[in-house]
Amino acid sequence: MKLRIAIFMLGLMIAIVKISGQQPSQISDLFRQLQQIETTDQATEQLLKVAKEDPITKKYLAEHLPLLIERGTVHSPVWRNSVRLAGELKIPEAAAALGKWIGVDAGGFITKTTLLNLDNNPAAKALVKIGDPSIPVLNKILQSGSKKERTRAIYALRLIHSPVAKMALSQHVANEADSGLHDFIQQVLDKWEENW
């Protein structure tokens, strides 16, 4: 078992070395692998490692991930990996595509904690990782989303926990039509400083 892991890691390291300083065709080849169920997980790991060091790869992903996210399905490993890349690489260009999925949970065991932390909502979790650049998308959701979408946007802003996120919630609280959500926003704002 250790030998297999060592061989896999060696192969991954060789692939990373080959990918460093990517040519556009090499990046697009790796992006195509991301879109194949058989190779999506390995391509995701390679893209994460490379894009953190290579701005050309990150720019390529910023241009191409939003469409892949927008057209995907929550239960597809390709979609989940694309969302993961957008969040972990903090790609603000993907925020609008992620916002379209904020009302769709991925399933799994649900508790109050997993719900509040968005553990079962990959798109919302990615928006949190992107941080402040995702707030305009979250504001639009607060203004015109369904109750479930607005709830997830409130949770995301709570987790972003920046001055801009607090301002977004403060500006929205007076306009929230649902009394339960209004009260929850007010509770989040009242406890803003003590929560973190």
Description:
The protein has 196 residues and is mainly alpha-helical. The chain has one domain (2-195): Leucine-rich Repeat Variant (Alpha Horseshoe), CATH 1.25.10. 72% of the residues lie in helices and 0% in strands. It has 13 helices and no strands. It has helices spanning 2-19, 24-34, 40-53, 55-71, 77-88, 95-99, 112-116, 122-130, 135-144, 147-160, 163-173, 179-190, 192-195. Helix 3 packs across helix 4 (55-71) and helix 3 (40-53) packs parallel to helix 5. The longest helix has 18 residues, at 2-19. It starts with a helix and ends with a helix.
| Count of individual helical segments | 13
What is the fold-level CATH name, i.e. the topology?
A: Leucine-rich Repeat Variant
Tell me, briefly, the overall form: elongated
Distance between the termini: 42 Å
Secondary structure: number of strands? 0
Tell me the β content: under 5%
Annotated CATH architecture: Alpha Horseshoe
H/E element sequence: HHHHHHHHHHHHH
Q: The biggest beta sheet, please?
A: none
The residue-averaged pLDDT reads: 88
CATH class: Mainly Alpha
Number of domains: 1
Point out poorly predicted stretches: 16-21
Radius of gyration: 19 Å
Structural category? mainly alpha
State the helicity in percent bands.
Answer: over 70%
Which key phrases capture this entry?
Leucine-rich Repeat Variant; 196 residues; mainly alpha; elongated
Would you kindly provide a brief summary of this structure?
This protein has 196 residues and is mainly alpha-helical. The protein has helices spanning 2-19, 24-34, 40-53, 55-71, 77-88, 95-99, 112-116, 122-130, 135-144, 147-160, 163-173, 179-190, 192-195. It has a single domain, classed as Leucine-rich Repeat Variant (Alpha Horseshoe), CATH 1.25.10.
